[in-house]
Write a structure and sequence with these properties.
Number of strands: 7
Strand content: 5-15%
Helix content: 40-55%
Number of helices: 16
Distance between the termini: 39 Å
Number of domains: 3
Strand order of the largest sheet: 3-4-7-5-6
Structural class: alpha+beta
Largest sheet: 5 strands, mixed
Radius of gyration: 20 Å
Length: about 350
């Protein structure tokens, strides 16, 4: 039975991410506005939360929303992201600090995402001469996704620059229309930006994955990873993350709502209710995974429409093209050409 957490489950240590947000808000003197900005967050004051204080994903999202709204600044998400990683989140943060190269850092980030970045799930793969780190929603935050993506991409970019000792040549694909001013993106991320993508992703040449980092230490990294291993095993992903993983693993088998509910040990009606609580539904989650797999096959394996249709179990390429346009709003050829 697949384990998962929901948006109302209390498990995010307030001394981790929430404390960073509170500290930044105080540096901008937002605490002068009293407790209004803490409404709906589960926090009682602006001081450092106690060690046993935990938040739900909904409360952490509310805190970010309150602070972002009060700041009303185009660079707020980027500045918060700069402080996010490696962070002070225990053994996993220590393991990141000792990472010997980009590959090891990405492995640690993805394995420990429920602690290091609980609201978005990072996923990375290397194939076809390209390494891609992409992000999916963990608990359902559509209105806040642009800010969350900016925050998380900046976090990885800044962490790699610090630990690697140089600016890495990331390329950024962002699943939103271009803002009227892109200066903040260029300052904190770089100039290699592409908007109106159907995936929030960072791309890099695989040659950078195994270049030694000056701060890396093989023995220290080994010890840190041993300490983080038990922590990783105890982490439970969010519902949307767990469902994405299940659908991705079974995408060629034609997963259904009923079969997925069995895998999660709940009834189809309960799964539908859980997804609704996260602002989603089963068909939307399935379509997202199918679209992501299609883009992967187009870009990394050079598949054409017929090959992708066969891979995903469509009867013919015509049905696939029709479905793909429903998923993304674009014909497969247009998106395939844009990716290449």
């Amino acid at each position: 039975m697949i384990a998962y957490r929901q948006i109302t489950d209390r498990f995010i240590p307030a001394q981790h991410h929430a404390a960073l947000v509170l500290d930044y808000a105080c540096s901008q003197e937002l605490h002068r506005d009293g407790h209004q900005l803490l409404r709906g967050t589960g926090l009682q004051g602006w001081q450092m939360p106690s060690a046993d204080c935990t938040l739900t994903p909904a409360e952490y999202l509310q805190l970010l929303s309150n602070v972002m709204r009060a700041l009303d600044s185009p660079d707020a998400s980027f500045l918060l992201g700069q402080q996010m990683l490696p962070g002070h989140y225990g053994a996993l943060s220590h393991a990141l600090l000792q990472a010997q190269n980009l590959r090891q850092a990405l492995d640690i980030l993805c394995a420990g995402h429920a602690r290091l970045c609980p609201l978005l799930t990072p996923r990375w793969r290397e194939e076809g001469g390209l390494a891609v780190l992409y992000w999916t929603d963990s608990f359902g935050a559509p209105s806040q996704l642009p800010a969350l993506v900016e925050m998380h991409m900046t976090a990885v970019t800044a962490m790699c620059r610090w630990l690697g000792g140089e600016h890495l040549p990331w390329r950024y694909c962002i699943n939103r229309s271009a803002p009227s001013h892109v200066e903040q993106h260029e300052v904190h991320l770089g100039s290699d930006l592409r908007f109106n993508c159907h995936l929030d992703a960072m791309l890099i040449d695989p040659a950078w994955l195994d270049q030694p980092w000056p701060r890396g230490n093989a023995m220290a990294a080994s010890v840190a990873l041993q300490g983080a291993a038990a922590e990783v095993q105890a982490l439970t992903p969010g519902l949307l993350t767990a469902l994405y993983d299940y659908l991705l693993e079974n995408i060629r088998l034609g997963p259904t709502l009923e079969g997925s509910a069995v895998a999660f040990g709940i009834s189809p009606a309960t799964l539908k209710r859980h997804l609704a609580r996260h602002g989603s539904h089963f068909q939307a989650e399935l379509d997202q995974v199918r679209a992501h797999v299609s883009m992967h096959l187009f870009q990394m394996r050079g598949y054409d429409n017929e090959a992708v249709a066969q891979y995903l179990g469509f009867h013919d390429a015509t049905n696939f093209r029709r479905s793909f346009k429903r998923w993304t709003g674009l014909a497969p050829r247009l998106l395939r050409d844009a990716l290449l």
